[in-house]
Structure formats: C-alpha cells, structure tokens
Write a structure and sequence with these properties.
globular; alpha/beta; 10 helices; three-stranded antiparallel beta sheet; 2-enoyl-CoA Hydratase, Chain A, domain 1; 21% strand
Length: 326
C-alpha cells in the first residue's frame, strides 16, 4: 500500500480509538488561526515575541500532508494581528536565521519597519545562534540589537548562485537548442559557460544589491570610523567583535532583550511576554521553536535528487550565509 494512504488510515484509526484514548497531535495545522499565549508576566501591557527561524523565503513548501506557508507569510500575518492590539507596547524579534532570498529578506525588513512606523512602539532584536546576512538585514529596524554571547552574525552582502550543468551534459551527450530575441536573453543559462561580458554584468547586479544592504546598515547603525569596510567584506563575526564594529548594541541573553524592551517602552516589570502560536504547549517558554521549525525546516516527503534539483539553492540572488545551510 502506498505510504500516504497508510498514514491516513493510521490517523483515522487513532481518531476513532474512543473518548478515553490520549490526545495525539501528529502534525501542526498550518491553516489554523493564531492564538495568543502568555509566556511570562501577568500585567495588562504586553511585549510581543516574534520568532524568525530558518531560511527567509516567500515560497510555500510541500509538507507531509499539507503545504506550509513561507516565513514571510507567517511573520506578516502575526504583525497584522499585533497591530490590532493596543495593549502590545513593545516588540522583541528573536532571530535565528542564515538569511534567504534577496526579495524575501527585503519584504520582511519593509514590513517590520512599516509596522514600527505605524504603531510607534519600540522594537528590540535578539540574535540567537546565527543571524547572518538576511537574518541580520531583517533586524535592522530595531531600536536596539542584542546578540547572544555565541551569536554568529554579519555576512553583510549578497551572493548570486548560478548552477552549471554544461560539463555534465557534454559527458552524457545531451544538448539544448535555444532561440532568443536578444543577445543577453539566456544570460546565466545553466546549459553553457558564461561569457566574460555576462560575468561582468551579473557581478554589477550583485554589487548593486550588496550596496543596498550596506546603505541600510549605514542608515540604521552608527558604525565607528573605518568599520564599514570590514563589515561590507561580507565576513561573519562573533558577538564581541560585532559589538566593537557597531553591528549590535549589547551582548546578552533573551532576558536582556525583554529588559531593554520594557525600558524603551516604559513598561513595569510585570508586563506580559506573549507569543502567537497555533497550538498550546505545556510548560511553554520563549525557547519553543517547534512551530517555526515545522515551517522552516521539515523536509518534503520525497526528494528526487535530480541533477537540476538543488533544493533551496536555486539560481538567484541571496542575502544568505551559505555555510549555515538551507
């Protein structure tokens, strides 16, 4: 019997097991609306914790039994909900991401900055294990950036990934005929080597997108003299060096991010920290990333592993630190 019908039969059998059977949740329902849950505090005022985990993308991905929304969709949905709640007085972004596509990173940056401008509430970004490239880009609107002592951040730049299979095609005796209306129409084609002129043009595009990233860093951060050249070399930094270069304001923990948000918003110590989730979890804490991980990292049921199937590394421009993986 095929795997998918078998799983569906198993789920149905569990559901019909009787009222006394323990409740078992096998899959996160990504179509259910978000609900608000309190992580700590008991006051009237709220600090919203918003978690950005995994690769930043607009695309939905195919899951085990249903498609999963992209990170941009999930974060913007939560921002829209938050904007309707006047009790939310501060926002903490908890970022653990190596970045993603240029456009998805820029959309998320724009939506976060626009939310901040519309509401006027203070915003603190807390960088976790990796907040590199697009993961740092989306944190730029924050009033204060706190890096975990072990954070890897930076990678301020853009990378153009261009798969090439012309060598493989030559070995197996496969060719491609191309008809084009303009000389550069197939620039970047994976089926032939790029010419020196095409490489120059693609490098110019890459440099332009990299300059946009650098300009936003200059707009949002007060870098010390001479730091910009080091920052735009696109290397990554540990938290202490990022602090010296002006990329972050403080080295600390998530609780320091909460404290900064309370201070900036003038909130009392009992202000509630709330999060939006689709499911309730016992003994829930800010370190619960199970739903975010389900959206960002759960693999598809079937991977064909074809020569052109590069998974998350499709041809395109990325604000991404490739070493951190998809």
């Amino acid at each position: 019997m095929p795997i998918k019908p078998l799983i569906m039969i198993l789920v149905a059998a569990l559901a019909l097991g009787g009222c006394a059977a323990p409740r078992l949740t096998l899959f996160t329902d990504t179509t259910a609306p978000y609900s608000e849950y309190t992580l700590e505090g008991s006051g009237r005022d709220k600090i919203l914790l918003l978690q950005i985990d995994g690769k930043i993308s607009e695309e939905t991905s195919s899951g085990f039994l249903r498609d999963r929304p992209g990170v941009v969709q999930e974060i913007v949905s939560q921002l829209r909900r938050a904007e309707k709640d006047e009790r939310i007085r501060a926002l903490v972004l908890k970022v653990n991401s190596p970045g993603g596509t240029v456009t998805a990173s820029d959309i998320l940056y724009h939506e976060i900055a626009a939310y901040k401008e519309r509401t006027g509430i203070p915003m603190v970004a807390v960088l976790m294990g990796v907040a590199a490239s697009g993961g740092y880009y989306v944190a730029l609107p924050a009033d204060r950036i706190v890096a975990h002592p072990t954070t890897v951040t930076g990678s301020v730049g853009v990378i153009f990934i261009q798969p090439k299979v012309d060598g493989l095609m030559e070995k197996i005796g496969v060719g491609v005929d191309v008809s084009k209306s303009g000389e550069r129409k197939d620039m970047g084609s994976p089926f032939r080597p790029s010419t020196p002129e095409e490489q120059r043009l693609i490098q110019a595009l890459t440099a332009g997108l990299g300059q946009r990233f650098a300009d936003l860093v200059v707009r949002h951060r007060r870098l010390p003299d001479g730091a910009l050249a080091e920052v735009t070399s696109a290397r990554v930094f540990l938290a202490p060096e990022a602090l010296t270069l002006g990329l972050v304001d403080e080295v600390g923990y998530l609780t320091d991010g909460y404290a900064a948000a309370r201070r900036l918003a003038g909130l009392p110590a009992d202000a509630r920290v709330v999060v939006y989730r689709r499911n309730r979890y016992p003994d829930d804490t800010a370190y619960n990333t199970v739903e975010a991980a389900a959206q960002a990292a759960r693999p598809a049921l079937v991977s064909l592993n074809l020569p052109l199937d590069l998974g998350p590394y499709r041809a395109g421009f990325y604000y991404l630190w490739p070493l951190a993986g998809p």
